Amino acid sequence: MTPSNFEPPYIVLPTTQHTHTIIALHGRGSQGPEFADELFEQATSSGHSLQQAFSSTKWVFPSSQERYSTVFQEELDEWFDIYSLTDPATREELQIEGIRDSVESLRGIVSDEARIVGPERVVLMGLSQGCAIGLMTLLASEFKIAGFVGLNGWLPFRKQVGESTGKGALAEFFGSKLNVELPERTSSVRDTPIFLAHCVDDEIIDIELGRQARDALGSLGMSIVWKEEKEGGHLGMLNTSGLDTIATFLRDWGILDRQIC
Predict the structure, then answer these.
(1) 252: left (phi over 0), alpha (psi -120 to 50) or beta
(2) What are the tens digits of pLDDT across the range 13-39?
(3) Which pairs count as long-range contacts for 91-95, CB under 8 Å and 24+ apart, including other chains?
(4) What is the pLDDT of residues 149-204, one digit of tens each?
(5) Is pTM, for the whole model, over 0.85?
(6) Extended beta strands in 20-130, E state
(7) Cα-Cα-Cα-Cα dihedral of 59, 23, 222, 139, to 10°?
């Protein structure tokens, strides 16, 4: 279920029997349909787009709200306001409202898709700010899902999340800081496999922020595969080499049945 103040997600239906769902989250300044075009524009080395390569997969592309940007002093399509991409911890209070609203919306979409195919067949992925809000959604989710794919992103409130290692500490952080109530867990979200990739020459989100996200999630005991691409820039994971890496991860971890190689 999507709250009324969010647009319904853009849906790309599977071309064969529906077995899995990937919920793909766009970056700042984009929208769901635009991200779908970017993701499917390039082909893997097999000559197939990800949509063709995983033909039994339903692709769900949610869109963020328009929010006022404190830095740019105008309305932007973004999951949450942020003062600095160099140091996301600067004026963190600006992020709270957007993270809360976006997490609530995205949790509903994850739950809807889990009811259709089962949580073990739902993948959450995101690029840039989509990775950031996707990680917060994962941590606030009700259950373990098939996996998370994060591309050239970071982890909001990294220090606080990384220190939330004790029993109930993560729920306390989400509740007291973000006003997000964590549901009673049916399975541990910390068992969800995570793949994080970042281009070393990313000109927008420094790779060090990706490394910090990896380390913070690792401190929670989460299973993470980390990959650094030497070049490609901020959108480098959407080129052929990056798509090959994503497809390999999905297959090797058994998240998706391979349809076309």
Answers:
(1) alpha
(2) 999 999 999 999 999 999 999 999 999
(3) 92/156, 92/157, 94/70, 95/156, 95/157
(4) 999 999 999 999 999 988 789 999 999 999 999 887 766 888 999 999 999 999 99
(5) yes
(6) 20-25, 57-61, 66-69, 74-77, 122-127
(7) -160
